Amino acid sequence: MNKTVSINLSNFHFFIDEEAYKRLKSYLDRIKASFAKEQGGDEILQDIESRLAELFNEHLNDKAQVITLKEVNDVIAIMGEPQEFEIDEEPTDEKQSKRVDHKKLYRDGENEYIGGVCAGLQHYLGIDVVWIRLIFLLALIFGSGVGFMIYIILWIVVPEAKTTTQKLDMMGKPINLDNIEKKVKEGFEEVEKKVKNIDVKEVENVIKHNSSKFFKVLVSALSKIAQVFVKFIGVILIITGASGIAAACIGLFTWSIIDQMDTIGFDLTQIFNQLGYQLAWISIAVFFLISVPMYYFIHFGMRILSSRFKGHKLLVHIVLAVLFFGSVLFLSLLGIKEVQEQKTLAEVSSVELLQTQATDTISFEMLNNHKSLDWDEDFDLNFDDVEIRIDKDKNGFLFSEEVKLTFGAARNNQNQINIVKTARGKNKALAEKRAENIDYQIESNSSITVIPSFFTSPIENKIRGQKLKLGVQLAPNTFFKINQRVYNQITYQNRRKLGLTRDEMINHTLFFNDAYELECADCN
């Protein structure tokens, strides 16, 4: 069992075992002794400690919370020993080969003119700062202010390189003892040069200071506005997510109890099962399809409002992902199955003969659905052109008023009605069977023919695009009448083909002449 020690390194708190602590203390003592007499030695030591803290944080994780001798040796190998270099010597080829050309984007505050964005891009892209500033200037003049907006955004988003470690990252140099020392010394030398040239550059510095101050105030104001806007977005995300989850819960709860409500009095689940829809599973899938994205709306909203919000563990996110994509897969397969079920269209035709005398005038009437069907007025589920109705015994059936009517002259001198039933299925046989199961009854005697404005079908046939077409074929010189309801059922194309106006057709005696043209017998 190893003894652990608590240390504070550059304002970071670490637990380190005793052997590792001795190794680290010895290393820091040697560095302190090496830079004790150097200019800026204290600042060099502070930057080295900051870099050590960063490296230790990178090595630690949820499983390893204590720094061991291995971590200390690894960090020392990265930073280097004080005796491995001489301060004034030029870097050897071997040292140069160990450098990693990996740069991070920072704003260069030491060479800033306004905000240091262009100077930072110079280090990151390797392009002279003059060209970068020229590009921003041209974008400002000829880009309708685009260059200005990009500059302001980069100023807000990109951090400034303040520490020695950040400055070395900005230039793509390895963060070790040699480079930290050189960078600190360069800073002192730069200060000395500025002091010597202060009279020469006084005017330039005043201009730079005033322009920089103006833009810094502007960026500060825009930054505060952006922060408020981002917080507002976070609130909107939370409200949207909470509302979505609440709606999904209410919907799921409603579907789960709707077939038990006394005010309805029928088994809705059974009706949907007869239609081929698994209502319970569909409701659950839709619930997760809606609620999981809404949860992440709340999650991201909380992250925006509070940086301390960490959310749930990885396992929770995995479970939510499985539920969401499982719901997507289930509903997608259901949709594909539905498309396959309606792939084939089939027609079934029949003929209804009208038994009339040559001197009879046939009166066509339209049967109103409410007079012939005894159904529950409180229930109606509409799916496009087909509705689901229930009778007084609580049995479901399909109902549709998709009945198309046409009139024309019979070339075989036989008064008849051609009935064409259509339906869809995954194959022709199933589609024809569904079409044959369409229930449609025409009542006819010598003088009156009653045409229903609707048709029905057993609910087991499912909703598969059921439709009905009626073609009334009358022998030439056969007199007939139609009322308003019958006229309204005639297709628009057939009305134009018949050639008479609405007033000439409704409640007048009509007939087809020997040329198969429609005429009015009693029109003025």
Summarize the structure.
This protein has 18 helices and 17 strands. It has helices spanning 18-34, 41-59, 69-79, 93-97, 117-125, 129-142, 146-157, 164-171, 177-196, 202-257, 268-275, 279-305, 314-341, 369-372, 428-436, 484-489, 492-498, 502-505; strands spanning 4-9, 12-17, 66-67, 344-353, 361-367, 381-383, 386-390, 396-400, 403-409, 416-425, 443-444, 448-452, 455-458, 467-474, 479-482, 510-512, 518-520.
Keywords:
524 residues, alpha/beta, four-stranded mixed sheet, 18 helices, 17 strands
Topology:
Layout (H helix, E strand, L loop, with lengths): L3 E6 L2 E6 H17 L6 H19 L6 E2 L1 H11 L13 H5 L19 H9 L3 H14 L3 H12 L6 H8 L5 H20 L5 H56 L10 H8 L3 H27 L8 H28 L2 E10 L7 E7 L1 H4 L8 E3 L2 E5 L5 E5 L2 E7 L6 E10 L2 H9 L6 E2 L3 E5 L2 E4 L8 E8 L4 E4 L1 H6 L2 H7 L3 H4 L4 E3 L5 E3 L4
Parallel strand pairs: 2-3, 5-12, 5-15, 9-14
Antiparallel strand pairs: 1-2, 4-10, 6-7, 7-8, 8-13, 10-14, 11-12, 16-17
Helix pairs in contact: 1-3, 2-3, 2-9, 5-6, 6-7, 8-9, 10-12, 12-13
